[in-house]
Amino acid sequence: MERRFSDMSQEELRQEIADLTEKAQKAEQFGMVNEFAVHERKIIMAKSYMINPGDFGPGELYEIEGDPENTFYIQYMNGVFAWGYRRNQAGVKVTEESEEALPISMLGQKIENK
Fold it and tell me: How many CA atoms lie within 13 A of 66 on its CB side?
């Protein structure tokens, strides 16, 4: 039975990330795209539990890992998820959706609001 990331210690999370990374590499080598994607998402979630959610707050703007064209504006935090919306380089909302959630490990450098 798998344990929840929230119940793991920092060391257990590091080991889990290492195991998942190995599984992802094997899946990629064998061309198992869906399995690779699942492991990548689990790695992102495990990394989120290694970060202090208190370091993030409403009204802050961050780069998004893997999406250099957009930034993420946080409206509120819920656990290890930042809820808000993506903005393009002109500062305009990218989608019409009211909000989306990103695991905090997907957030890069904080951007000072301009």
Answer: 8
Instruction: Report pLDDT digits (tens) over 3-56.
Output: 999 999 999 999 999 999 999 999 999 999 999 999 999 999 999 999 999 999
Contacts of 113 (CB under 8 A, 6+ apart): 59, 60, 61
Burial tier of 93 (Cβ tally within 10 Å: 0-12, 13-18, 19+): middle
- What is the mean pLDDT of the segment spanning 71-84? 96
Q: Write 21-24 long-range contacts (CB < 8 A, 24+).
A: none
Distance between CA atoms of 42 and 90, rounded to whole angstroms? 32
Rounded CA Rg of the chain:
16
Residue spans of beta strands (DSSP E) within 17-106: 61-64, 67-78, 81-87, 100-103
Rounded CA-CA distance 23/10 in Å is 20
